[in-house]
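Reviewer 2 asked us to include a model.

Predict the structure of this chain.
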Amino acid sequence: MTNLDELFEIVTKIIAEPNTTITEQHKRKAIRVFLYLDEFMMENVPEYCDDTSELGEIDFGFYAAGVLDEIEGK
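Predicted model (structure tokens):
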């Protein structure tokens, strides 16, 4: 499990509270959080888009797209 997997799981659990069962709807909301975070980072953290920085290894948008593909069976 990667750090982004762990973060996605945490965000999904928070969205699902007080329920303990995670649904597709909860995951889709967590994907939206990741996409908004990706947009925020691109606009406000110049190093985020720099492939040579440590932040360049983190791509919330790419991760969210992968989770959405899994949900949709692609």
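The chain has one domain: 3-71. The two ends are 21 Å apart (CA to CA). We have added this to the supplementary material.
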